[in-house]
Amino acid sequence: MSQKSIDFDALVDAHTGRVAASIYSDPELYELELERIFGRCWLFLAHVSQIPKAGDYFNTYMGEDPIIVVRQKDGSIKAFLNQCRHRSMRVSYADCGNTRSFTCPYHGWSYGTDGALVDVPLEARAYPQGLCKQKLGLQEVTRVAEYKGLIFGNWDASAPDLEAYMGDIAWYLDGVLDRRPGGTEIIGGVHKWVIDCNWKFPAEQFASDQYHALYSHASAVQVLGAKEGEGDKALGAGQTARPVWETAKDALQYGQAGHGSGFFFTEGPDANVWVDGEVSQYFRDTYPEVEARLGKVRALRLAGHNNMFPTMSWLNGTATLRVWHPRGPNQVEVWAFCIADKDASDEVKQAFERSATRAFGPAGFLEQDDSENWVEIQKVLRGKRARSTKLIVEMGLGNEKRRDDGIPGMTNYIFSETAARGMYRRWADLLACDSWDEVLERTRVYEQEVMKHD
Ligand code: FES
Ligand SMILES: [Fe+2]
């Protein structure tokens, strides 16, 4: 199947809200995704707090490609394919660390932290014809850029600059990254686990799906209760939980350029019922300062879901930031980081980590609800007949609007699928189009059509 022969508009019809079930399991589409999405989009690599000193490195992935992110002697950051130029061995094994060189465990070729091949064992005897070491450095990721502490990489020199690529999702992301003057840091290590589902299920859910929380998380919400100011107390017998979707006065979903976000407007900084008491108290204590920096809407935004296309998701308040590394069409490797304000005390940071682990760690009570759905869908899609159906993604179709209260971008009511439609539109456009200019033009036309009633 050549990419030119695929009818992407038939796979994704954002105007009627239909998506072909086959996009979650087709191995040929997956190969195209690796090339045309993971090979061309800005992907989250690491947080600057993970590699503060020269020689500090962090190992991650771009799609399925292993990547070393390393702090240079001059303080800049570079990223390299973690693949020995000799016979393809991984040259760096540890999750992270500090080093002066990366030495391949197979035959001992050694690379500097700038990627240059600096040493080849028995060079003169093994390569009497000469070896052009200058040309055999590690492959460098074409572009590396930072946004408020987050480091991103991109293989595509023609892609828009990082901030242009982010567009309005940066405004929503600032609600986590820019709350206090010190910015953020990653607390503790990275939780990594595997879920047997296509990467687009979790990415889409974090972009667009608050709807599932009413039902999938009903039991967890009931146990926790949502009485304002008592988030850390379980409900007593006979008490009824009042979840945030019942108590919030308004809510919105944002969806544009493939990215998505959703949250409720609350009256006070107590909306998130599953965080520790210390975290709730910290939100209350810092509220005036954060409001002065970010305004009321984002300062109060303590329960919200988000995805920056394609695979970086985060939840406000719960302080989980994660990447959905694809592992074939039927599996995803989750890397979950706990992100918190650098200016918080050590006790509060530990409380953030506990809260993130309890709710959204690999055994987190909310994480389990979510993964169960995705795994079962993926199993259903093994069926030939199941794979030939269309999924319904039409919630809130035609109700998109631009707000006049300073909240940017194309928005809808929170219980809608505006962000999902935009995500699949961007997915299809990237697979269909050879150039970023074409992709951006298609996005512009699509969003104009979506908004023409406004
Ligand atoms: S594969 Fe790395 S030195 Fe041979
Ligand atoms: Fe969920």
From TrEMBL:
The keyword Acyltransferase does not apply. GO terms for molecular function: 2 iron, 2 sulfur cluster binding; dioxygenase activity; iron ion binding. Its cofactor is [2Fe-2S] cluster. It comes from the Bacteria. Keywords: 2Fe-2S, Aromatic hydrocarbons catabolism, Dioxygenase, Iron, Iron-sulfur, Metal-binding, NAD, Oxidoreductase. The keyword Iron applies. InterPro entries: 3PPDioc_HcaE, RHO_NdoB-like_C, Rieske_2Fe-2S, Rieske_2Fe-2S_sf, Ring_hydroxy_dOase_asu_C_dom, Rng_hydr_dOase-A. Pfam families: Rieske (PF00355), Ring_hydroxyl_A (PF00848). SUPFAM superfamilies: Bet v1-like (SSF55961), ISP domain (SSF50022). Residues 43-125 form the Rieske domain. Belongs to the bacterial ring-hydroxylating dioxygenase alpha subunit family. NCBIfam families: 3PPDioc_HcaE. PANTHER family: 3-PHENYLPROPIONATE_CINNAMIC ACID DIOXYGENASE SUBUNIT ALPHA, CHOLINE MONOOXYGENASE, CHLOROPLASTIC. This is Aromatic ring-hydroxylating dioxygenase subunit alpha. The lineage of its organism: Bacteria, Pseudomonadati, Pseudomonadota, Betaproteobacteria, Burkholderiales.
